[in-house]
Amino acid sequence: MTRPSSVPPPVTAVLDASSRWLPERLGEVERLLREATVGYGEILGADAGATLDAGGKRLRPMLVLLCAGPAGDPIATRAAAAIELVHMATLVHDDVLDAAPLRRGLPTVAATSGRGRAVATGDLLFSRAFALLSEAGDTRSVSLLADASVALAQGELAQRRDAFDLGVSEGRYLARCRLKTGRLFECACLLGRDEEALRGFGAGIGLAFQLLDDVLDVSGPAERTGKARGTDLLDGTVTLPLIEAAKSDPALREVDLRALDDDAAEGLCDRIAATGALERVRTRALEMVAEAKRALEDADFEPEQRQLLSLVADGMVQRYS
Amino acid sequence: MTRPSSVPPPVTAVLDASSRWLPERLGEVERLLREATVGYGEILGADAGATLDAGGKRLRPMLVLLCAGPAGDPIATRAAAAIELVHMATLVHDDVLDAAPLRRGLPTVAATSGRGRAVATGDLLFSRAFALLSEAGDTRSVSLLADASVALAQGELAQRRDAFDLGVSEGRYLARCRLKTGRLFECACLLGRDEEALRGFGAGIGLAFQLLDDVLDVSGPAERTGKARGTDLLDGTVTLPLIEAAKSDPALREVDLRALDDDAAEGLCDRIAATGALERVRTRALEMVAEAKRALEDADFEPEQRQLLSLVADGMVQRYS
Fold first, then answer.
1. Which of A7, A206, B202, B293 has a beta carbon 3.0–4.6 Å from A182's, enabling a disulfide?
2. Does A199 reach chain B within 8 Å, measured CB to CB?
């Protein structure tokens, strides 16, 4: 079986359960991703190549392909590559915003090549996504991806606006996560197939994914997440674990996030964990995944497709455990 | 006549010479630009609104509309707004890269709102461009704009790569300008009308525009350009005036651009000007404009359209004089 390099366990489960078509198409997506980043000068080759090699779960391409199904339109493969290029572009830009040294345990483009190159590299990946999708001649897909990209940027702006603000409400946090993460998962599903039931599925697992990611930032361990615990807190990003923890430990609302150093951030992580907030957030995420899977039942899928989509949804949870 | 606010003189000449349709459509473009940046939160409203209000010549939208002509497809107006959104996005990102305090004499988004918000604001403007264009349902336009955006980012990366390198050749400089500036002008023309002759016209005036912009950086005056003289030199950007000046004053190749301060940059500008390089670069740009206008002769245009496009080409020169 052709398999993308460094495939993490939950994705392996999906690949193992699928028949031949899925890994083959994911291999094709990797080829398109590679193509999209070569021939644009040695700098992009190096920077984007490093981003590609750093792997990632290719969850969004997998959702596109799974929703499109084995008989899916050939355009789905292009759309799968395009959505991953947008995702990669936002990661490269996020690392500029956060001045992050590491991503998936490897140095970020911003760290190795500087902010300037990282901004331009992100712009290039972004442009290549739309070039790839428009070559396929389908404006519905371009519209979907452009609107999701708007949402991503809105989510990022909302995160900037709310940075260091311990008064951020749960509702505001969830709205931001829907923009920043949910919409791209939703877009992936709709790129694969034009079906309303998939909107709830994609948005639901995307939101669960973000919640669990925010739990991982507090719980670590660093060896698994590839970055230090409390990175979000150091960036001033107030996430659900902290909001939830402050319900039982209100003094947490008085912490000055701007004054945190690495050790204090670790200490704050321990304090959040001590309230049991991580389990409560995890439960919320599990409920979201269960609800997303129920949304799947309304869609007219082949048994294999539904089973594989369920496995992807379960994968959201497995990455935590 | 409805006119975009703060219209600079060369553009006024085009508007004055045109019949009613052009200013009306430019008014519509302004409306679309405004629409594209409201309703996405107060931050974007403020940041993008400030970028919009800072004006700009709307040269690229004007090229789209002029090439489309009075009987042009309604899609041209959307394409005109979309290309200006991409242009705005790159300006916002460029100011992050260069940490520029001023643009058109006003504070940049990067300066007022910080790098993080500027990166996200640029991403949002960029995404809105593709959303706007894909709503019109024309993949040819999306492809053209995406490919031009790829070229812009490549040009930006080339500029990073060559920064502070006084050995950069004229050919390398010109290739970078074609990517960074020429391609978007070319794209503007082709968005208006699918005609091969327009490729040379757009690319030619775009290149001339960049050469004259690089002359202005050296010649100033700051009151006119809205930024200090020698800003490019301080950023390590080696442009044609310096390359040309070094032909008659080879010691210029030994200058350490990294060691420049504001005063030394002004001094270097004077030294470049003393070689007569500015006149020589200006002459090159004038030749490019003349050649671009010859390319127009091959295209099948109404007399008014050809006259107005010539006026835009002349405007490239007027901004210098």
1. A206
2. no
